[in-house]
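User: quick one, fold this
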Amino acid sequence: MLNSYKIVLGTSTLKAGGQIKSLLLQKGFNVDGICTSGSMLIRKARLTKPDIVIINYELTDTNGAEVAKVISGEAISKVILLCTSQQYNLISKWTSQMGIICMQKPIKPSGFLHTVSDIIEEIAQNKRGKAEGSTRPVGDKLLIDKAKQLLMKKENIEENEAYRRIQKESMNSKRPMRDVAKRIINSYKA
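Assistant:
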């Protein structure tokens, strides 16, 4: 199942990309290629439409954050951006708003693989939902919307950040978004 989802890597050197590729291949993921420049990575992503693009902040011709903006902004694929803590502090606000997942280096293989697995599971759920023609029940949508509104008001955040928080907590806790939304609503009632 894992090898049916394509991953493309963007790193400053083929050696660094090879290390990440090796880690992913060992766990059964399908790595479709390694690009060392941002322009090459954007072209490849537009052409092959991978499920996930993993980008190192350092690339040969630009920084990975700019490439992540393009790929995420065009909704080509899910994006994981690997960066230092200083880089993370500069970009974390807008990356989370765009749904870009930032991971601070040095990455821990187990956490990294867990994040990739979670994203693939999310993609698989979305594909199953589309294939079945089903959508989220109206009651669930209303609960999630209410939780989003509460988060936006109480945490002073944008709508897409509120949704992303609910979605991320759902993935991390392996609980449906409906249950996470109920918990958020109940926590603000107290």
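User: anything notable?
Assistant: Helices lie at 14-26, 38-48, 64-73, 85-97, 109-132, 138-155, 159-173, 177-189.
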